[in-house]
């Protein structure tokens, strides 16, 4: 599938934009107050949307070297947050002592899809797309 390699950075950018828009929708429209770990996930996602957009405009594939560490770290934060919500003994680790509880679930679609799960999915998709398109075959 050579087209995947050719357009993978565009796909990663679209995923990052969708995640950015989704997080803004949940906080600004739906009124969900982000917890500490949600903010950390945003710290990793928001620059990805900007950097990948610039890289797409400039056709710069070297962005992979900078974007994969961001998306991987964000994915690990999302995974921890998701486990904190869904695994009881992980939820007992007290890292959110003030403000919104990090174990709270504003959404719980189909019994497993929460906001950290959506973020984890986006980070995995971005990482996978960037990895697949790291070198374009001509």
Automatic annotation (TrEMBL):
Phylogenetic classification of the source organism: Bacteria, Bacillati, Bacillota, Bacilli, Bacillales
Record's protein name: Disulfide bond formation protein B
Alphabetized UniProt keyword annotations: Chaperone, Disulfide bond, Electron transport, Membrane, Oxidoreductase, Redox-active center, Transmembrane, Transmembrane helix, Transport
Keyword Transcription attributed: no
UniProt GO BP: protein folding
Record SUPFAM superfamilies: DsbB-like
Localization (cell): Membrane
InterPro entries, sorted: DiS_bond_form_DsbB/BdbC (IPR003752), Disulphide_bond_form_BdbC (IPR012187), DsbB-like_sf (IPR023380)
The keyword Metal-binding is assigned to this record: no
């Amino acid at each position: 599938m050579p087209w995947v390699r050719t357009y993978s950075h565009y796909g990663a950018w679209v995923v990052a934009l969708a995640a950015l828009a989704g997080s803004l929708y949940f906080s600004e429209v739906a009124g969900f107050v982000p917890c500490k770990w949600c903010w950390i996930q945003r710290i990793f996602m928001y620059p990805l949307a900007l950097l990948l957009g610039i890289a797409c405009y400039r056709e710069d594939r070297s962005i992979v070297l900078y974007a994969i560490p961001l998306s991987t770290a964000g994915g690990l934060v999302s995974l921890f947050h998701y486990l904190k919500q869904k695994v009881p003994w992980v939820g007992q680790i007290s890292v959110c002592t003030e403000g919104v509880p990090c174990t709270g679930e504003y959404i719980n679609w189909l019994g497993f899809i929460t906001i950290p799960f959506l973020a984890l999915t986006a980070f995995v998709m971005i990482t996978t797309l960037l990895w697949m398109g790291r070198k374009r075959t001509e």
